[in-house]
Specification:
- The structure is a single chain.
- The chain is of the alpha+beta class and 147 residues long.
- It contains four helices and eight strands, in the order E-E-E-E-H-E-E-H-E-H-H-E.
- Strands 1, 2, 3, 4, 5, 6, 7 and 8 form an eight-stranded mixed beta sheet that branches.
- The radius of gyration is 14 Å and the shape is globular.
Length: 147
């Protein structure tokens, strides 16, 4: 059973999302990815965020655990703070995902969107999108929610 870690990163009224075009399907998700066999989820989170965006996670709190179809089965969603940066999250050309994209003609692009726009995008898992939207309005949960 695979597991993945993903990040909710919010700064200046914007949230960081990943635009995916994969095998002809276009959707949005949070940045993050699959755990290696020996990694703790927090290690996966830090590694994946850095690989995909160049950002460094400095604090993370588990907010949601989402049941998900293969290949991930479970996704651990963290609310994250990142180290100061220039504001431009960009796909790192040396990331594993970027290399796969070149071979498979897929697109994997992180970018900041306004919180208002987040409600209107085609998000990979609508139940997670709804949970994030509710948390933005009412506050994030004190204990992780299972979706």
């Amino acid at each position: 059973m695979g597991k993945a870690a993903r990040a909710i990163i919010i700064e200046n009224g914007k949230i960081l999302v990943m635009r995916r075009v994969k095998y002809g399907s276009e959707y949005y998700t949070l940045v993050g990815g699959r755990a290696n066999d020996t990694e703790h989820m927090e290690q996966t989170l830090v590694r994946e965020i850095h690989e995909e965006t160049g950002l460094t996670v400095v604090a993370a709190t588990l907010m949601f655990v989402e049941k998900h179809p293969e290949p991930y089965n479970e996704q651990y969603i963290y609310l994250c703070n990142v180290a100061p940066h220039d504001g431009n999250a960009a796909l790192r050309a040396d990331s594993e995902e970027a290399q796969m994209n070149k071979l498979e003609a897929n697109m994997h692009t992180p970018f900041w969107i306004t919180l208002k726009s987040f409600e209107h995008i085609t998000f990979r898992t609508p139940q997670l999108q709804r949970a994030i939207l509710q948390a933005l309005k009412k506050g994030f949960p004190k204990e992780p929610l299972h979706l």
